[in-house]
Amino acid sequence: MLSISKEFHFSASHVLDHLPPDHPCGRMHGHNYIFVIELTATPDELTEAGFVRDYRDLAEFKNWIDTTLDHRHLNDCIPERNPSAENIAMWVYEMWSPQIPELVAIRVSETPKTWAEYRPIRARG
């Protein structure tokens, strides 16, 4: 199996629900987010050029981040989910896996030392 990844940056605010009243994440605050998307393919699935996917093909994903998430309030962008890093990772995967079939994982960072990852369990055949 071959794997590639690409990192994307944006800034946004959010408020997390269901926390104790004195929890700092229950107040509006912001982060400089990092998404890392991971794509995989077997050797026989590589493109003719030898790529899992051409990185240039991910420009649409970058544009979506810039227009949908960057400098936005994530509570308004992510429908019906508390915008924790974990929920953001699942939401992004669900949104983009149909357009990027090689997508196997999304990692989300809110701070330089914290990461959440969504990597769905795939059925073995």
What does this structure look like?
This protein is α+β, with helices and mostly antiparallel strands and 125 residues long. It is 22% helix and 34% strand. Strands 3-1-2-4-5 form a 5-stranded mixed sheet. Strand 4 and strand 5 (114-118) form a beta hairpin. The longest helix has 12 residues, at 85-96. The model has no long low-confidence stretch (mean pLDDT 95).
Label this structure with key terms:
single chain, 125 residues, alpha+beta, 5-stranded mixed sheet, 3 helices, elongated
Write the layout of secondary structure elements.
Elements: E1 2-14, E2 29-41, H1 59-69, E3 72-73, H2 74-77, H3 85-96, E4 103-111, E5 114-118
Parallel strand pairs: 1-3
Antiparallel strand pairs: 1-2, 2-4, 4-5
Please mark out the parts with pLDDT under 50 across 5 or more consecutive residues, or reply none. Answer: none
Describe the largest sheet. 5 strands, mixed
Q: Roughly what is the average pLDDT, rounded to an integer?
A: 95
Radius of gyration: 16 Å
Output the strand order for the largest sheet.
3-1-2-4-5
Which of globular, elongated, flat, extended, rod-shaped describes the shape?
A: elongated
Tally of DSSP β-strands: 5
Instruction: State the share of residues found in helices, binned by percent.
Output: 10-25%
Overall structural class, as computed from helix and strand content, comes to: alpha+beta
Terminal Cα span: 16 Å
